[in-house]
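>> Question from a student workshop board

For tomorrow's exercise we were told to take the sequence and the ligand below, predict the bound structure, and bring the output to class. My setup keeps failing. Could a helper post the expected result so I can at least see what it should look like? The ligand is iron/sulfur cluster.
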Amino acid sequence: MKTELPGLTLAELTDLMKRMGFPAFRAKQLIKYLHEGADFADMPLLPKEMRGRLAEECEANTVTIHKEFPSADGGAKYLYALRDGSIIEGVRMRYSYGDTLCLSTQVGCRMGCAFCASTLDGLARNLTAGEMAGQIACQKQPVGNVVLMGSGEPFDNYDEVVRFLRVIHEPLGLNISMRRVSLSTCGLVPQMLRFAEEGLNVTLAVSLHAPNDDLRKTIMPIAEVYGVADIIRASRVYFNKSGRRIIFEYALIKDVNDSDACAAELAILLHGNHPAKSPGSPTKPQFWRGGSTDLSGTPGMPCHVNLIPLNGIPERSLAGSSKNRVRAFESKLTELGISATVRRSLADDVAGACGQLRRANL
Ligand code: SF4
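>> Workshop helper replied:
Here is what the output should look like for this input. Compare the format with yours to find the bug.
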């Protein structure tokens, strides 16, 4: 099997060069080319004989754009083809401060969230770090921010995701600052705690989608394993280690989780008044920057709620909340001292929710 080069760090590429009998400095030239999406034939600084050897034994491009669907807002959705014929999807979102690329971390997903099309056929396989990096490289244009929020649960593919983050941080490669990366998780508590120790300090986006376990279990099977109190505690550990404000993702589903009562319960949870609070905690959150509500209870943490108007999925009977309900939910949270905004829909004129494009193609 050929060695996938885009998933290697500079140190690993350097080792490989030495093992193949090439000078170590070639790794520095190679990493730059790899992250520009160049094939071996387009690496003029490398000797011809070396390019031939590399082409025989290694892969330079792990991902190709299978189809591009431009959006009226300047962004685009993509179907990417992998070497084994698998298809994954991704999105480029255009913001005033630069482009953000949303990447997939798995082919499909086994988490089973009721509002998500990516999980309808289960998990096919994990992506390699090289295949994640390849989604950036094949764009062949600058990427400002990276969000791991496409198909797959990143922490269900922990080692390759961590490797990918280290690879894109390589100064001679893409040199992407971890402050420009967001990673979404449906709340795999052990991995959240482990990730806090990695020192990578990306923004953690925790997909909560319900303020209590009973409701969460009706839309997210993972709630049978990890409760919201543990997820909030793990989020606080991550904040304490990284200093990064936690983002809580909340998809608003009509008549399921979009009532004022849900907003109030969510506010209480995020203020730190959840049932599992530790005794003897200070009565005022130490880092709280929310509002003037009574914040007695365990300390909250700097956090923000991203409200996502759900895109309906034909295969499921769940519908998105009305615009008025979305606004009302946001107002309720803000009134209760929780920082919240409604996520702008980008590139949503193309095939709606995450995973639908790939399904339509299959
Ligand atoms: S929302 Fe995320 S974790 Fe849940 S099924 Fe979809 S891809 Fe998996």
